[in-house]
Amino acid sequence: MLAARTRLAQSLGAALPRTTTLARLGRVHLPALSTSSFLARRGFATTGAEEKTVPYTADKLTYLKRDPAFNQITEEHVAHLRTLLSPGSLLVGQSDNDNDLLPYNTDWMNKYRGKSQIVVRPRTTEEVSKVLAYCNEQRLAVVPQGGNTGLVGGSVPVFDEIVLSTNLLNKVRKFDPISGTLVCDAGCILESLENYLGDRGHIMPLDLGAKGSCHIGGNVATNAGGLRLLRYGSLHGTVLGLEVVLPDGTVLENLSTLRKDNTGYDLKQLFIGSEGTLGIITGVSILTPKKPNAVNVALVGLKSFEHVQQAFLGARENLSEILSAFECWDKSAAHLVQAHSVQGNRNPLAEEHPFYVLLETSGSNKEHDDEKLGAYLEKLMENEIIDDGVIAQDATQILNLWSLRESIPEACSKSGAVYKYDISMPLPVFYQMVEDVRARLTAAGVYGPEKMVTDVIGYGHVGDGNLHLNITAKKYDGEITKLIEPYVYEWAAKYSGSISAEHGLGLMKAPYVGYSKSGPMIDMMKRIKKVFDPHGIMNPYKFLPQ
Amino acid sequence: MLAARTRLAQSLGAALPRTTTLARLGRVHLPALSTSSFLARRGFATTGAEEKTVPYTADKLTYLKRDPAFNQITEEHVAHLRTLLSPGSLLVGQSDNDNDLLPYNTDWMNKYRGKSQIVVRPRTTEEVSKVLAYCNEQRLAVVPQGGNTGLVGGSVPVFDEIVLSTNLLNKVRKFDPISGTLVCDAGCILESLENYLGDRGHIMPLDLGAKGSCHIGGNVATNAGGLRLLRYGSLHGTVLGLEVVLPDGTVLENLSTLRKDNTGYDLKQLFIGSEGTLGIITGVSILTPKKPNAVNVALVGLKSFEHVQQAFLGARENLSEILSAFECWDKSAAHLVQAHSVQGNRNPLAEEHPFYVLLETSGSNKEHDDEKLGAYLEKLMENEIIDDGVIAQDATQILNLWSLRESIPEACSKSGAVYKYDISMPLPVFYQMVEDVRARLTAAGVYGPEKMVTDVIGYGHVGDGNLHLNITAKKYDGEITKLIEPYVYEWAAKYSGSISAEHGLGLMKAPYVGYSKSGPMIDMMKRIKKVFDPHGIMNPYKFLPQ
């Protein structure tokens, strides 16, 4: 016991400078990024130089055909749309590759690119209603777009669909500190809401890497999971009410702030995770937890995924109600983060380890939490479940440790093209998928030094059984895709997993829903779609198999 | 501070004998009651003597007319149904008041009574499918029935609908201790599941007074709330998957045990709270929390509801992640429990108080929880927010304190007829409804000693903003009803509340949904109903306005 304690303390001393005051705050956030600075980070706004690197989706995925039931947009349409909106709310492109519209046509991964010439940015729910009613009447297809941080091509057009952006719907409507209920516009940026609540002693019940750009409406529409689901549950539980505009312009107003309301079918649930295919979410009412008085973050190194599992079961037993995150990544992910020095990250542990786990506790009593976490980590050291570990000693160190985890997607992107998969499955086979894919790509001769595939990386939310499998390659290549898909989907189905734990279906996985849902389920989904959107104008070509 | 501590300790000493060992268990449960013993408790099974006391719903609510689109049941129907079921699964009545069928025709409150002559009790999902497909084809109306513990007349027939009982669908299918996921038949009794899980170190995420009789399928179909919602959230978050049979016999099989699955519309959410109007839930997959190592229960007495609110805000701040229940009741409720000596309950506090709060903590470390609870209660005493209090010292005392709260509905029933309302609303006006209703009934001259209305009682889940308003009367009386309804619904609407927090709509509130949902919302619900149940055979006359 003493030996373990000394070893842990030494690591702490070696890796991160100790300070006398432990952090009493929640995670420190960067200032919210505006959409333009986010786009600048992606290399868009300033030069437009990268535009040619993203081929049109329609050229790449030749099985997709523009639905002739949708009308082409005419000058009359544009003129009429202008009458429905406040000044400055309509963007009209002049050519396919117009720089103004490129950020709206291209996804975060630079993987999908549409050809829309029209972006509408309503400022009120009423404007959304008028625009949708008109598009529905005129059979003009519409893509709802929030922060455009999706990973499955769901938030950009395929052909010439009108982009309806929630950028300008960005006001907090009300916050009640007694109940912790927040009501806000759909276009509020997640991090801005977190900052707003932080000043009022609350936090958002969800947090994710894209928080500086993603919109709460998009989070709800895609049922975003993220880093706090383990503790605060899914949006199906925390969203209390929605305001939604249906394609025919009808506003379903149900921004309830009640924790309980059993009066009829819970329609809002259908919109949570519907990816903009049923209507447009314009307002969100959400239950926000109290900001914890005490937050601890530890990073530990482990020998194998078997050890990760043991550490997780121990955390559930010993940290129980204060456990707020249990994130894991492998050596390959850590290497990439080091290699690309994302935000100056370096390994705070003395040596390399096959696996890393970041665990966070959030509670109301710092002393109690320290005691629980200390006892738990000592037990892990003693039983040789972990090999090394550090505990953040202040808010900056908390941020630094989280940065190691949150930088992984960016580090992957810097490696070239990234094939991203997002699977949920039973914990015992969690990491086996990564190993099986590595073996498959190695056997096919495409993975290794100087080969097309440069890395196969596994990381994710162990507490939710949610693995992010990222495969980095020199470029997107049809042959590589064929080696991976539908293999990973078949794999997920074989182990009763889901082919999309949290990213959604979008364009990427629409053809593969059958791996996770039965025929009768998909049929019923199509019938539901028909009820809400009889002309199919909402986010076409996506979500469900055509 | 010292004075407060002494006072609290004295109360503890005076009211409940101290034991040296504090309880390290969850709440102790009574053995699960079988349906027959439950019915016996209601005075049904043995004599049938009370049957004449419950008038037929159809005679009482004359605005209800039997829908002629439904066929009358013939001998051919009965003969065919028999071929679809295992032996012993079909009960056929001989006359309107046949004793065998009375428990299926009459609700828990003895308020609603139907005239069904047929009860089917399938043993498998396949049998449910065959029965429903046949009923759908033959246009025979069906009422799904679980434990028949509903409070809004939703689980009994109005006319001659066939009762489809889940009594014989009562097997646990699987439990995974790593993920805590339980998959079971819809007819499993909640308390039996709690006992099953208790042996395996887990608990159900919901708990309610009717646990000895209610079925998990009925809990899901009515989106039951109950005593643990404050801590573990609603069934919309904890139910991971459902198996549902649609009216045409289609089985929607989606008993996923995954915590995250974003593949298509989350159809199961529609069934949670649909009250048997879309199909029949036959299987449930649900996330079960670890059984807490430490449970504490305290009962405190307070001067006013203003003090109750202050105590609640303090509990959220100081007990935070370990707070698992915050239940409140008024002096009238306490009086009734004492008067009827339900299970020998007596006031453990030295004096009477205008309000009582039972609060429970559940955590992983007994010492930490004791310290948090002790410090919180001392602060309340010091600030004169509470006037007295006791903390349970062992499992028996925990059970006794809980019994004070859980006996309230039974005590009300023993007073005569009970008008039950179940409103959610913002906390500041929580108790005002009780006062306003008292004033209204007093002004009308019907409330007081020797009057028709004997008591107006308020109790409920403060943490969820959910008040149970019970009005006891010598008998159910149309004039009294008119004084209360729609007054309480108008009141709820005025304060942005819900006319049904957790009980559902059933027959009782179907006409009043408009107080909590807008016209477009109700229209959309009707369209959804049509998709799943085009012939309207599932639980007709209920849920939505006709």
From TrEMBL, chains A, B:
- Report the superkingdom from the record: Eukaryota
* Residue ranges occupied by any FAD-binding PCMH-type domain in the UniProt entry: 112-291
Q: Which GO terms describe its cellular component?
A: mitochondrion
The kind of enzyme this is, by top-level EC class, is: oxidoreductase
Q: Which cofactor does it need?
A: FAD
According to UniProt, the reaction catalysed is: (R)-malate + A = oxaloacetate + AH2; (R)-lactate + 2 Fe(III)-[cytochrome c] = 2 Fe(II)-[cytochrome c] + pyruvate + 2 H(+)
Q: What is this protein called?
A: D-2-hydroxyglutarate dehydrogenase, mitochondrial
Q: Which organism is it from?
A: Basidiobolus meristosporus CBS 931.73
